[in-house]
Amino acid sequence: MDLVRGYQDRGLNREKIPWCSAVLTGINILVFAACHFWGRQFYDAGCFSVAYLLRGREYYRLISAMFLHVDIGHLMNNMILLYFGGEIVEKTIGRGRYLLVFLFSGICGNFLSAAYELSTGGFYDSVGASGAVFGLVGGLLYLAVTRKGRAAQISIQRMILMIALSLYSGFQNVMVNNAAHLGGLISGFLLTFLLCHVGKIPGKGTGGTVR
Question: How many domains does the chain have?
């Protein structure tokens, strides 16, 4: 019985691992290492700007740019939020929905960035998982609001403060793509809302409508 229980416990522990967050973090780190060894070719081939969509119809850049980072600080900031914030979202809404929020938010963030470029007439290359990561933060905000802080004991006030500080920090740096941040945040919040009502997941005290 003890042996069987030991195997069962290990199985349960494996289920608690945020596999999507871990894999996405690992992919970003591996791509960063590859960029370090092979130079600019990855950035040139994968960075995003609306110019690439209009001139070359290189739509793959909407996704490829999410996995590129300019330096170790940029990478670490995004990966910390991706893993620890994403872990809560993944365990609450499930892996499939989590991946959908991540990719959809990153793409929406890049689209808003493209719209901003067109509105200002300034075109620039951008890279980073920030739009997708802010989408997970938006999803986490929705969970905190609907669960009234029961999602990993995160209060609404702390979530709002964290988001406000992150956005403020971005607006203080001209090199930060704030349009992608806002696009990801809003789309992540809205998509999590839709997913929680289209595919309802039972939750304590919530009528089974939130995750």
Answer: 1
Model confidence, pTM: 0.81
Name the catalytic one among 74, 166, 181, 187: 181
Query: Is 208 within a domain?
Result: no
Please count the CA atoms within 13 angstroms of the CA of 134 that sit on its side-chain side. 28
Nearest-angstrom CA–CA distance, 201 and 142: 14
Domain span including residue 101: 2-198
How does pLDDT run across 112-168, given as a tens digit for each residue? 999 999 998 888 899 999 999 999 999 999 988 887 555 556 767 777 777 777 776
User: Is there a catalytic annotation at residue 181?
Assistant: yes
Query: 13 burial class (0-12, 13-18, 19+ CB within 10 angstroms)?
Result: exposed
> Active site residue: 126, 130, 166, 187, which one?
130
Q: Is residue 203 part of a domain?
A: no
pLDDT tens, position by position, 63-100? 999 999 999 999 998 999 899 888 889 988 999 999 99
Q: b/e for 115-147, b at 16 or more Cβ within 10 A? A: ebbeeeeeeeebbbbbbbbbbbbbbbbbbbbbb
What CATH number does the domain containing 39 carry? Answer: 1.20.1540.10
Q: Is 197 marked active-site? A: no
pLDDT for residue 177 is more than 50: yes
